[in-house]
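Hey, I'm writing a tutorial for new members on how sequence and structure tokens pair up, and I'd like a real worked example in the thread rather than a made-up one. If someone can provide the structure for the chain below, I'll link this post from the tutorial.
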Amino acid sequence: MQAWICDNPVGPQALSWKDAPTPTPKAGEVLVAIKAASLNFPDLLIVQNKYQMKPPTPFVPGAEFAGVVEVVGEGVTHLQPGDAVAAFAGLGGFGTHAVVSAALLMPLPGGFSFPDAAAFLCTYGTTYHGLIDRAALQPGETVLVLGAAGGVGTAAIQIAKAAGARVIAAASTDEKCALCRELGADATINYSHGDLREQIKTLTDGKGPDVVYDPVGGDLAEPVFRSIAWRGRYLVIGFAQGSIPALPLNLPLLKGASLVGVFWGEFARREPKKNSAALAQLAGWYAQGKIKPVIEHQLPMSELKHAFDLMAARQVRGKVVLTT
């Protein structure tokens, strides 16, 4: 097999494409021939040694991928060679093959393309867990999505609309806002200019959003939390802006609001039955055409470093997918 190897986590420039022995799956594992892998923000952090998980070197980055089962290990009965699968395994995706725990694999229904599947589990799993499970989003409520043109942001627009919510999508350019409207957003905010709080106030008739979906963090968090509705739920998804905000704790008190952490990977590990049910719902919505990953860039696996450059420059709408 071949893979991008991280020997020294100082950034994407240190990755190298190398030959490696094709691994043999152990009991409970599966060898997957990778057809497509997607880039997520934690993939950038992990090769910069900035992520909470710090794997020993050398390692193959790439948390999310899709492909075909080649070999099943002892005790694996629900998968067979030739099955199409998707995985969010944390590592191993940026190569031609990976060994994965069978429990982490999602069998793909017919009609699910490998690029879509590679861009599906993390963004849609995270977003469903956040909006439906953690925020208990109800039809008719208003959701404000920050970073709405990114991977999880575009998923949040689609899932919130599928759940019957009103969506206000906030992004950094007019072009990104236009994409959000194409995906079904009811209103948009370009937060690179104008008074963000005033725009939120106007679009919610002074009430504020019931749910805030925030994968951005940074200096947007406090003004947005100050704008949240009574009993609002503020979902902490990630910190794409780079800095982790600190909020005065009197704000949730005064608003009767909740600050809610969303860690889908840990949820999937601790509550696998609930996660499987969520993924089944999402697969159904995909088949019905209600949700579909936005893939702006589909590149060959050899262009991984260019893909990282696009992500670091915040030039990606939706997801970047790499194919073998």
